[in-house]
Specification:
The protein is α/β, with parallel strands linked by helices and 76 residues long. It has a single domain, classed as Rossmann fold (3-Layer(aba) Sandwich). It is built from three helices and three strands, in the order βαβαβα. Strands 1-2-3 form a three-stranded parallel beta sheet, with helices on both faces.
């Protein structure tokens, strides 16, 4: 899973490219226009928000929901 407000963070793009090249399923979470990450990830979750702080807040809410869902599955 790669998270980038602009979708162009070099370290995130590198990690997602490596994961794809090694047969892993990738998820990209982006803001703004989605940058290069949006088409690179197998699953793109895109928030078309043109403000970095608000885009990061949306990403944070999504991550909290995912972690909460995983926690309930693991802990019952």
């Amino acid at each position: 899973m790669g998270i980038s407000g602009s979708g162009n963070g070099p370290n995130v793009l590198s990690a997602i490219a490596w994961a794809r090249d090694n047969g892993l399923y990738t998820v990209g979470i982006t803001g703004f226009e989605g940058g290069r990450l949006r088409p690179l990830a197998h699953l793109a979750i895109h928030f078309p928000i043109m403000d970095m702080e608000i885009a990061e807040n949306a990403h944070m809410v999504l991550v909290h929901l995912v972690v909460g869902g995983l926690r309930s599955r693991i802990c019952g």
